[in-house]
Amino acid sequence: MTRRDSISTPSIANALRGNKPASEYKKETTQQAKQVAEPEVHPFTGEKLAEAWTEFVVRVEAPQLKAALSTREPSLVDEWNVNYLLDNETQRERLVLEVKLKLLGFLRRTLRNERIEVEFQIAEGDDALPRRPYSDSEKWQAMVEVNPSLAQFKKMFGLDFDS
């Protein structure tokens, strides 16, 4: 014995009542699912990207990561591919592990584009920032390069400190 509602033929009584056959409901839900599954893709400019990037950097709490993300401007490679140059591999590793997913989510929401991708690369050649002096001797050498008379003053006054 078969149940009445399991029959796949259309019912005249249901059609007169305004009820749709099950196959129509399946078509509607499939179309709705396709609409939801399509990513939101709105075009954006490099200026909008820079604004959103700066807004995100303000929210970063770790000072090293904040500094790494604010050193340069992000560049828009394609319509939605973002490239950002870093100084070293350590920065890249930390940003990929700790910040990249949050950054992607923020940029995608803010710029209303689900296809945005961010790539971190190490700067080389002309893109690399000059190396900063860290130790006292490196700082002294950098100051002497800018102002050679400092070396003469040191010798003249007999100053003795690590150089």
TrEMBL record:
Residue segments, region Disordered: 1-42
Protein name: DNA polymerase III subunit gamma/tau
Organism: Prolixibacter bellariivorans
Species classification: Bacteria, Pseudomonadati, Bacteroidota, Bacteroidia, Marinilabiliales
